[in-house]
Amino acid sequence: MVRFTRWYLRELTGVNEYDRYLDRHRADPHGPLLSRREYERLRIDRQDADPGSRCC
């Protein structure tokens, strides 16, 4: 149950997105590897540019 809760919280907060980015980059390196900070900044900028169905 602890493992599931940890996974769920990581998915909910977006922490696992960087891990998936690293996996994709290792499989197909198409440019420089971004640090976690750079990746998060890029992700947030994209969400701000196209908020979709977010309320805020």
Supply the key terms.
single chain; 56 residues; mainly alpha; 3 helices
Which runs of at least 5 residues are low in confidence (pLDDT < 50)?
none
- Which range best describes the helical content: under 10%, 10-25%, 25-40%, 40-55%, 55-70% or over 70%? 55-70%
How many whole angstroms does the radius of gyration measure?
A: 14 Å
Q: State mean pLDDT (0 to 100 scale).
A: 88
Strand fraction band? under 5%
Count up the domains. Answer: 1
Q: Based on CA inertia axes, which overall geometry fits? A: flat
How far apart the termini lie comes to: 32 Å
What is the SS-derived class? Answer: mainly alpha
Question: What's the short version?
Answer:
The chain has 56 residues and is mostly helical. The protein has three helices and no strands.
Describe this structure in words.
The chain starts with a helix and ends in a 7-residue tail after the last helix. It has one domain. It is flat, with a radius of gyration of 14 Å. Helices cover 70% and strands 0% of the residues. It has 56 residues and is mainly alpha-helical. It is built from three helices and no strands. It has helices at residues 2-13, 15-27, 36-49. The model has no long low-confidence stretch (mean pLDDT 88).
Topology:
Elements: H1 2-13, H2 15-27, H3 36-49
